[in-house]
Design brief:
Helix content is 36%, strand content 26%. The protein is built from 7 helices and 8 strands. Strands 1, 2, 3, 4, 5, 6, 7 and 8 form an 8-stranded mixed sheet that branches. The protein is globular and about 60 Å long.
Amino acid sequence: MNTQYYIQSYCKIKEACITLNDTLVFEDQNNEPKSFFKNAYKNLELKYAKFFKMDNLSKLSFLGAEFLLQDNENDAESNTAIVLSNKASSLDTDRKHQDSIQDKANYFPSPAIFVYTLPNIAIGEISIRHQLKSENAFFVFDTFNAEFLCNYASVLLDKKKAKSVLCGWVDVDNENYEGFMYLVSRNGKIKHTIKELTNIYQK
């Protein structure tokens, strides 16, 4: 018999709003990604200067993780895996990198941009911030894939690869962004099933 896991908490970031378990925790007048992410970061009153060097995909992922992992900070035995997904990969940053090498007369590819032309760098930024050393993966789908994420997280927990899994959908494409991240473990009130996951995402 398969072990029942639970959605411990979830966070949504979209249209200049951040909600944690359906409770609004931050709202801004500016929906432009760079400005909104900056204002959301400042609202958290963090001191993590590297945030400002990240690309927008990493900033979106970082913010979602910040709300979901804050209760794990003092858990010395915390072993959290990360499984993220989106539909645009690192396209938003890829365009910026392409712009930096387009003009042959003024060819100057930026290392600061190039480092973010892989979507899994977002996972790296979360891992560095929260000192996570467990399993991690980033997948690309056309749409939010509740079935895949639910099954993948359950396998990691079944095989004891992690005690909890930070999962989600983090997508940035030009001015459009959407973040839906959640923490799965043995604890919680919402059953970690495809149906429940789909319902929460679609709320």
